[in-house]
Amino acid sequence: MSFISKIEKIEDKVVLYKYDGSDLQKDSDNMLEFGQQNQKRICFLDVETTGKDRSGDEIIELAMKTLLYDLDSHSISKIIEIYESYNEPTIPIKKEAFYIHGIAEETIRGEKIDWEIVNRILSGADLVLAHNASFDRAFIDKGSSISNQKIWACSLEDINWFERGFSNGKQELLCIWHGFYYDSHRAMNDVDALIHLLTHPYYEQNPPIMELIDNAGKPYYKMMAIKSPFETKDTLKANNYKWDGENKYWWKRLNFDEIEQEKDWLTELIYDGPFLGMVEEISLLEKYK
Fold it and tell me: Which one of 195, 208, 235, 247 counts the least CB within 10 Å of its CB?
């Protein structure tokens, strides 16, 4: 495990504090500071769902919190929007999902997300952010008419946690390694913990949120190992390729400056001959779809 160096310790024991988000309440001042280049309006969100199927399952809880982040001082200027809601689904909550979030069907009976409020909050954000954003976005895109027009960022993919000394990108583990824990897998608790993690006071320079903001402004590239021989699947997987079951190919996310090196690797170790793969640019608005 990789705890931050400033974590509190007593002899050979690590001391964790419980974080409850009480410092992230909405400001009473409703005057928003629009148009300033040194500030970003970032909407953090999280969903709890009936299951893991992005096409067939449904949202049962949504939390959103928009903050104004100052890029010069690396600090939160204010909390400007908060919204959370249960949502009664049209399908049962799967047992595996209930074991994770503990939300019972009777708790959410008759509840409904107000998508007009969701759209208004999304409209005012410069950036929409979630941990493992491709999961959350799949559900938000189905209910919101604004989501497809926004740039999404992912605190799992847009931050190189490994280079920061952490061997796993799961939110709960990262929080523990930063010295705190929280009541996880409830939407607003997850949102508050993510904000605290990305703006953690441990980082005097280059906090995770700044790395994320920088990467959110860049497209990424999808390297597709089309027609890769079956016997190379373990080699591809070991090099962080993912299997696209619908289109039947292995693929990997790259930055622009990594493309040529990856082509050379595929040519030598996978194709053993001419490069047969494809490279696709994923634009800012298409990221994490």
Answer: 247
